[in-house]
């Protein structure tokens, strides 16, 4: 496991950025700038990561490449393509987005039509176009699993990989995002095993967080920091290590640097990494 965080930590230079991650005992990083920063800047961050022995785990896109407005879609597709080109130049493990949606006001929102055959075909074509245009050699393009859009299950993800049919496409596994039922929540150990079995050899990066059941009606789940929920973290790390000992494992969705620092300390203690 190459532990990392999605936060970039407050820093005043690429070298300072890399040092702060190394000082926390981290082995991987999410890239803190996009291609619009310019090649001189993003290559300086790559150099700092390389010299510090840090693996660049992820370059994020986080744009709606399925926007209903065609002009907006064109803009976001271009952004995704340029991000993937940059990711390939800096040898990132993956460049990741969510599928997006043309079906409502929230770009990453849940809508019934997200699961239609028409939307499925749009997603497949969108992924193929991004990959075929950027033509990455060093980096996988990936779509993060989500609760309310494709891919929302390991079966969907395996089918998506098959339909996209590009060797440059791989799975970015956020198993917590796919825990959407009492069965998956209470038997999350078994669900994690299902994810890694059905996506065996296809996973390029993982997110690390936790999930808890709220005492509300009806069934409600809430994402939370590691250790504040019920996820079998040991099993997640065990399965990731078994598939790839160099698997990036990225702690995400915390608010402050201090929260990330605390979460890293917790994981290192819980997994006896200290």
Q: Fraction of residues in helices?
A: 40-55%
Average pLDDT confidence is 98
Global outline: globular
Indicate the low-confidence ranges by residue numbers: none
CATH superfamily: Divalent-metal-dependent TIM barrel enzymes
Provide a count of the helices.
9
Percentage of β-strand residues: 15-25%
Summarize the structure in words.
The structure is a single chain. The protein is an alpha/beta fold and 274 residues long. It has one domain: TIM Barrel (Alpha-Beta Barrel), CATH 3.20.20.150. It has helices spanning 14-23, 39-52, 70-89, 117-134, 154-164, 182-186, 188-198, 233-243, 257-270, and strands at residues 2-5, 28-30, 55-60, 94-97, 140-144, 169-173, 203-208, 210-213, 221-224, 248-251. Strands 1-10-7-6-5-4-3-2 form an eight-stranded parallel beta sheet. The chain has a two-stranded antiparallel ribbon with strand order 8-9.
């Amino acid at each position: 496991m190459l532990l990392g965080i999605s936060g970039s930590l407050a820093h005043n230079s690429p070298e300072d950025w890399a040092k702060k991650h190394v000082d926390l005992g981290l082995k991987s990083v999410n890239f803190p700038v996009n291609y619009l920063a310019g090649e001189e800047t993003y290559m300086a961050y790559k150099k700092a990561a390389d010299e510090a022995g840090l693996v660049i785990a992820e370059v994020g896109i986080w744009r709606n490449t399925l926007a209903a407005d065609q002009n907006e879609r064109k803009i976001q597709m271009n952004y995704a393509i340029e991000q993937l080109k940059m990711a390939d130049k800096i040898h990132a493990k993956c460049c990741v987005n969510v599928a997006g949606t043309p079906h409502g006001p929230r770009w990453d929102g849940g809508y019934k039509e997200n699961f239609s055959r028409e939307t499925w075909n749009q997603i497949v074509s969108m992924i193929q176009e991004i990959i075929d245009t950027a033509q990455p050699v060093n980096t996988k393009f990936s779509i993060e699993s989500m609760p309310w859009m494709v891919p929302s299950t390991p079966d969907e993800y395996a089918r998506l990989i098959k339909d996209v049919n590009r060797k440059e496409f791989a799975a970015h596994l956020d198993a917590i995002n796919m825990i959407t039922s009492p069965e998956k929540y209470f038997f999350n150990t078994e669900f994690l095993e299902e994810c890694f079995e059905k996506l065996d050899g296809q996973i390029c990066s993982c997110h690390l967080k936790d999930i808890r059941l709220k005492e509300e009606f009806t069934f409600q789940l809430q994402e939370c920091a590691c250790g504040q929920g019920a996820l079998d973290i040991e099993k997640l790390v065990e399965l990731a290590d078994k598939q790839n000992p160099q698997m990036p494992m990225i702690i995400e969705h915390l608010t402050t640097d201090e929260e990330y620092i605390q979460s890293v300390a917790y994981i290192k203690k819980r997994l006896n990494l200290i």
